[in-house]
Design brief:
By secondary structure, this protein is an all-alpha fold. The longest helix is centred in the first third of the chain and has 33 residues. The termini are far apart.
Length: 313
Amino acid sequence: MTNSPQVSRIRRTGTAIWSNAYILLSFTALFWAGNSIVGRAARDLTPPAALSFWRWSLALLFLLPLAWPHLKRDWPTLKANWKIMLVLGTLGIGAFNTLLYTGLQSTTALNAMLLQAAQPALILIAAAILMKERTSARQIAGVIISLAGVLAIISRGNVVTLTNFNLDRGDAIIAFAVLLWSIYTVTLRYRPAVHPLSFLAATLVIGVMIIAPFYAAEIVRGHLIVASRNSAFAIAYVAIFPSFFAYLFFNRGVELIGAASTGQFLNILPVMGAGLAMLFLGEQLQAFHVVGIALIFAGIFVAGKAHGATKAR
């Protein structure tokens, strides 16, 4: 009984945090930013497919007790929509993070985070091409400005690099990963109407199955996880924080303030990631980073203003 006031205080604090979207989404952005930091820091300890495989396998293990009642109820719907679930699980779980960790083998976490800032612009492009959504001249202008920022980062401020196609392999892989994530985001509109935990668990199962052959290929080539405390920490971090907690917090944020506001708030992610990269990895902010991120955010602002005007009508 002596601990009851303290327990009550902890419960009240937990309830208050769970009801505050911006606290939850701040942690989400922090955890997702940390994903790139850990992926870069552990590049010599955990091969990319191995890190991705164990990240999602352990996250699925943590998630199943929560998701199982919903999965049993939603299984017929998930089974009937297996084709779109296969696409979503492959793009959102199987491909994106495996490619991200692969790119981080040779490029900086700072570059990776700033390239991911271009997602809103790429989502507009994917929606226009794949879903035939109408785009305004202002949205197109915003996309062009943001893509100019991406090119500034990829070329490291040297236009000659682009004309010679002498791009950093890691930057190119991460840019492709961001493109696939944008396609995944647009395709989410076709997801079956099931509980969010059922959907997440099902996509994790598919993603792990997609990653497994690549993980096996790494093992055959002799690319093994280095048995150490740091590699165990890296796997534990990416499984618990950017996977399990971040997805729970993200889904709760959407529930509290809606998808549009949640997406806009998470534009802080590359800023957090850049700060973490400089703080923990000693990476340096260069002039081309500043130019690139300024152009990316300018493009998001221009395109976002157009989107807001369209919604108002």
